[in-house]
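seq:
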Amino acid sequence: MEVSVLNINGQETGRKVTLNDAIFGIEPNDHVLYLDVKQYLADQRQGTAKAKERSEHSGSTRKLGRQKGGGGARRGDIKSPVLVGGGRAFGPKPRDYRFKLNKKVKILARKSALSYKAQDNAIIVVEDFDLQAPKTKDFVNITKNLKVEGKKTLVVLPGINKNVYLSARNIQKAEVMTASALNTYKVLNADVLVVAESSLKTIDSILNK
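struct:
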């Protein structure tokens, strides 16, 4: 699949790049996409939710009423879960939500996500660029020139670029990340990918092993 290379002014440079069919042209696997996104979201969870059970509450252990004949639910002491202020039955406890996925599954998921974007013509390749200073206005102008303003935009750079990152930080629907940090969730969550030309080599080297 050939894609024209644009500059940051939105103009064609006259060059084209070929997207690797082994990465951008496979038959997407929806199940591995689900697993990889599920793992990513699970990793974001703190897992610190905690509720006190009846054994953790302070209070008397005296039985408040008779076992039968009271006309209501049977209960024991003041810490019973059926009483207001009592312990919670089966409440949440701190836990680790992370789980393992094989590397091949994660690679296939990223290939599937990129293939979906390629099928939707949602990949824009731009020649490598830099900003002289961190200015939000300059980054907004780039999105206008590329006709992606107002869309969820993921800018993929070959390496860390502080000026570009800081320029995009205040824009709600824009995100900047390096090609080596690319993950399935970020790709699927974006409406359009703006990929720097040199990033394609990094993506090939990581996903085409």
